[in-house]
Amino acid sequence: MDIERFRKEHVDLMAAVTSLRELVQHGISEQAVAIHRQLSAMSSAIKLHLAAEDRMLYPALARAADPVVARTGRQFQEEMGGLAAAYMAFAARWSLAARIAADPQEFRDDANSVFKALHLRVQRENRELYPLAERL
What pLDDT is recorded for position 1? Predict the structure, then answer.
């Protein structure tokens, strides 16, 4: 299975997170509008990525003849549900620039938590899941 698209999306997502961190470093309240725009763009990209994984990657892994591959794919898909829900709740909570500007420390704490989990997930997919998919 060709998973180059998924790998590229991971690179793009991590670059977007870096851009978001740079905005945060320049002041959350001062950059709230730009942060909001960045979050909106990231949310769209994440939703598309997750939908593609659900439509293509996970079904292909589930059909694998190797039970370890199929089980690993199911495990990753189940785990992703919790992370996806956490990210969507984060995005909904901070869906207004005024809300971001009004509580910069809470935004920072929330963002750090969500993006740390997202970063760890991307690393695991790159290291564990995608090599399995490439063998298909």
Answer: 86
